[in-house]
Amino acid sequence: MIVCIAEKPSVAKDIANILGANSRHDGYIEGNGYQVTWTFGHLCTLKEPDDYLPAWKRWSLGALPMIPTRFGIKLIEDEGIKKQFAIIEKLMQNADQIVNCGDAGQEGELIQRWVMQKAGARCPVKRLWISSMTDEAIREGFNDLKEQTVYNPLYMAGLSRAIGDWILGMNATRLYTLKYGGRGQVLSIGRVQTPTLALIVNRQKEIDNFVPEPYWILSTIYRDTLFNATKGKFNTKEEGEQYLETVKDDEFTVTSVKKVKGKEMPPHLYDLTSLQVDCNKKYGMSAEMTLNIIQTLYEHKLTTYPRVDTQYLSDDIYPKCPQILKGLEGYESLVQPLQGKPLPKNKKYFDTSKVTDHHAIIPTGVPARGLTDMEKHVYNLITLRFISIFYPDCIFSTTTVMGAVKDVDFKATGKEILKQGWREVYAKEVVSEEEKEDKSDEKTLPTFVEGESGPHTPTLSEKMTTPPKYYTEATLLRAMETAGKFVDDEELRSALKENGIGRPSSRAGIIETLFKRNYIRRQRKNLLATETGIELIDIIREDLLKSCELTGIWEKKLRDIEHQKYDPAQFVTELKDQITQIVNDVLADNTPRKIDAPEEEPKSKTNKKSNSKSKEKKEESLEGKPCPVCGKGIIIKGKKAYGCSRWKEGCTFRKDFDTK
């Protein structure tokens, strides 16, 4: 019997259908020589400190650093998980072969390997490696199963990452909590979480400490067109007024008119981060909500694997593109101009050398029906982006008009779209305010002739320098992705250029963790650090703990482990030495600094309204989460209750609003 193990029940069902396994049992599906079972994401985790030594259960500075001689795994404490694992264990003990059908990535590899280890599986293991859940992709994957050993380096990189996070997180959190936490305050430290918090805190300090300074801009209106002096900013009003006096009584003369044609290619395809950025900008969706929705679309075979960090397609996808386009229901008017001729193939989108495990996120061509509004938004972004790469370039003309009054030069620029090209794909799309700001320079100028002159209206405008903007989820995700710019070391900057802070799939969770731990809060779209978050970053003495460099060092080594250029044992040994040094440095600090937990607001009649709002806020956090009943849909908000997006298909999840 061949046992196939997937990461979710819904994925297992799809695989079972393809394999001809139709007999349902408790915890698995059987038939045609296969038993298809599933996990619920992680069933196993690394052991807790007290699983190694009972003395480590009590938080004590004297016990630090805690470094087990050998790391082990255990089942997560949950009755449902224990029940499912018992089924998996029995199947694996009697299996002739196992097929690992976990998500094709580092985390998916780790999840299933741990389950197989815990179950004591000893039979041969094959690996299913696919980028989409369509029937065709599953069939192709089973026809090309790999030996599990091919992915051993991927597993070792994932295991090294998990052990490293345990060593740093467990020790540093206890260390800082015991040393600096006052009145019940737990101070959580993490390799990705702490540098991310530092980005927000440092930006907030820049804003708080910013002192606006005045400057003056000389401009003039000629033929209803604004021209700015090329002189730039004036630091004093007096200097600006001198120039104003010079130009106010003379005519404006056009000295040159230059038109330059240009072309703009369609934007890159989506990786996870760029999709999360656009969903936040256009629809105000959190990174976590976007990830949950795109995961649902993937599991329903509508889009390809979502947890990707490349914006390219491998060359073997190109022959499949006409069929994908043909299957896009509701997009016929956009696809029709592409039919009857070969699709263009550009290196900006098709480049096998830029693809490792998975390619960019694209639609699969399976008709998308019965989607929620949020699912439609995400699916539409992905589909329009995919269609657009086969459209012609946008052709535009940039006009630069130079003018002069006496010896003072002025300049105006404008952009005129001559041929829409790929922009036709987005003609009916609603443009967000942020996108309008990005396109503010796209104005068309009237026709000017060199040598013409006439009256004009000059003005001297006082302006103030402005502070940097607060991070939004969109800009924070970009900062996490491009964290290398915050690092001085060239080699580390290169490592971060490829990886950034954290993996694309983990960044949403990191941001949510900062919210849950009361380190940051939302103010509309802006992300602000709380007092606790600011104090935590201030109290951390080791710059490496709160800088992007630590992640840069890790990511380079983990990538080298994956490519078999670095020894995992050496990685763990170096980390043990590092945490030992951090513990010694903190223990040597004799300052009496403490961070207290925020005081709870006293409960009173006057506080009922705010308590109600707080409860409502907690309820709102359900929206966009995976459904706990079916695991296929996401939670949506109705008039009276929250429900699963798959309620039409019989899902029973419902949670009424609190109306007390």
Distance N to C terminus? 55 Å
User: How much of the polypeptide forms β-strand, as a percent range?
Assistant: 15-25%
Query: What average pLDDT do the residues reach?
Result: 87
Which structural category fits the helices and strands? alpha+beta
The biggest sheet amounts to: 7 strands, mixed
The side-by-side strand order for the widest beta sheet comes to: 2-3-4-1-7-8-9
- Uncertain regions: pLDDT < 50 for 5+ in a row? 600-620
State the helix count: 22
- Kindly provide the radius of gyration, computed on alpha-carbon positions and rounded to a whole number of angstroms: 29 Å
- Helix content estimate: 25-40%
What is the general shape? Answer: globular
Let me know the number of strands.
24
List keywords for this structure.
single chain; 660 residues; alpha+beta; seven-stranded mixed β-sheet; 24 strands; 39% helix; 19% strand; globular
Write the layout of secondary structure elements.
Blueprint: E1 2-6, H1 9-19, E2 23-25, E3 28-31, E4 34-38, E5 44-46, H2 49-52, E6 73-75, H3 79-93, E7 97-101, H4 106-119, E8 125-127, H5 135-142, E9 146-147, H6 152-180, E10 181-182, H7 193-208, E11 214-222, E12 225-234, H8 237-247, E13 252-264, H9 272-283, H10 287-299, H11 321-326, H12 332-335, H13 373-388, E14 394-405, E15 408-419, H14 433-438, E16 453-454, E17 457-464, E18 471-472, H15 473-481, H16 490-499, H17 504-516, E19 520-523, E20 526-529, H18 531-539, H19 543-546, H20 548-562, H21 568-587, E21 595-596, H22 608-620, E22 635-637, E23 641-644, E24 654-656
Parallel strand pairs: 1-4, 1-7, 7-8, 10-21
Antiparallel strand pairs: 2-3, 3-4, 5-6, 8-9, 11-12, 11-17, 12-15, 13-14, 13-16, 14-15, 18-20, 19-20, 22-23, 23-24
